[in-house]
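Sample entry as discussed:
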Amino acid sequence: MSEQANIGLIGLAVMGENFALNMASKGFRVALYNRSVARVDALMQGRGKGKRFVRAATVEELVAALERPRKILMLVKAGDPVDQLIEQLLPLLQPGDILIDGGNSLFTDTIRRCKRVEASGMLYVGSGVSGGEEGALNGPSLMPGGSPAAWPHIKPIFQAICARTPEGEPCSDWMGENGAGHFVKMIHNGIEYGDMQLISETYDVMKRMLGMSNAEMHAVFAEWNQGELDSYLIEITRDILKFDSGSTPAAIDLILDVAGQKGTGKWTVSASLDAGMPLTLIGEAVFARNLSALKDERVMASTQLKADVVKFSGDRKQLIDDLRQALYASKIISYAQGYQLLRAAATTYQWKLNYGGIALVWRGGCIIRSVFLGDIKKAFDRNYELVNLLLDPFFRDGVANRQAAWRRVIVAAVQAGIPVPCLSSALAYFDGYRSARLPANLLQAQRDFFGAHTYERVDQPRGQFFHTNWTGHGGTTTAKTYNA
């Protein structure tokens, strides 16, 4: 009998093929199956020639080729295909075998699937994966969660193939029970939406307000990438602005201003609404993509809607430095909001999340990797119970020291008619979060006026509710529903 494989992989699209090559390069024997067997043959005769792959023409052959407990990584399209594959595999498995979903699945689907698989005696893992094609091949960030008993069996593989921090620590660790892994990946993607929009707004101010050339902007982002903003997204922005495809204008100027999205940002915003957490920056990032999609309407509106704007006449060099500071301060807000949602979800779903460990997993291999994440880990090392990153001394001072620059950028952009929804939303959140008193007292009075929804009072203990007969002809019956 031939040597059995350490892990099976189903799905040989771009991510699957590169995952297979990554695992083989780390010494693992991998059994391969794809609905179109021709893809398996193409890999084994091409990029994977001579590597420790086992060809499987059917799922039955794949299962038979694996050592116990069997570990099967599914890299198929999220949604129904995952459920169909699970139902196809379960009758072929034995207790203790492990199914791993490495796709971009919705975390609530992963919670449901984990229950289904565990009820059949097997183990289930939903793993967030970030890093794209390059990461899959050379080392992604991996965020597994699900059946805790599965982790000791998949840990040697995951921590062998994942990215590493500059200090050599693996960018893969156990996230938590059932859907925790895919939830953490969803938050990662939401923050990614925010980071990308913040950078794009900064670019827009440079280009349209300051009239900077691509070469000038390239130089600015190259400089920023040497300091506190050092990150993958700043790095690729630098490279995009320098890229010369031989066309006139440059490649960046030929791209239509319509942004696509796969839905994970929307999931993040939806989860924040369910949890009552104000992820305002990420929400604006999603809406900015939606607005970009209204291209034809925007072109038409641009000919009819004129605005009174003021041409920038200030210190150009100062504004560029202000932009750097505003971008950094807004980035702090984005992560602060994301971590608030993580904490809320941990309470709701009873996950034991390692917040500093999550930052460490994101430090390498993933799209939002940056030196900034090391500071987040330190913040949670100082205080695991930290309720908001803004309350950590490092981040508190980081925002305070950049506040004036942040406000100058937004004022200048507003006066020039340049939309900066994420930069301004971040500042609005900061000003709201630091306010001991907000105008919600008037809002609640309005609710009580038209709907008898009651209110609490500043001179009475929390939890006591009152109603006013505002019109003089209302009754004493109240709605008896109050959520704050």
